[in-house]
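FW: tagging you since you asked about this chain on Friday. Here's the raw sequence from the shared folder, copied in full. Didn't touch anything.
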Amino acid sequence: AGEAQMMALTDLPLEQTPFISMEDVVMYNSSTYEMTLTESAAAIVHRLGIPVNGMPFVVVARGERIFMGAFWTPVSSLSYSGIVAMPSLEEDSSILYFDLGYPSADFFEGVDLRDNEQIIKAFSKAEKLSETE
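HL: got it, structure written out here
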């Protein structure tokens, strides 16, 4: 994930098919930054085999690249200064947590874009937005 962090957002290569699409999302909570995935999408995330140095991703909303982050594992001893997507440790959980930095927000550098207007509009339009804590 470190190499990707050094690249401009516009230069990061995107997969032909999104790893997680709107169809894979049940709900996004814009207050707690938790994404509830469908069972099938959650199973794929749990099988990722996330390396200790993370696995980069790009969030795209309404065709626009919003931010880059990394899937992260709680067993990593490495720090990360971006937004991390951390699957729940519970194997049967379908929640993906979006946190600032790893192992804590003290390591985060940059701008918090987890509630970017484009992201909120996309989830709202799809009727998959929750704002409860």
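FW: Strands lie at 25-29, 34-37, 55-61, 64-71, 80-87, 95-102, 129-130.
HL: agreed, and The radius of gyration is 14 Å.
FW: great, closing this out.
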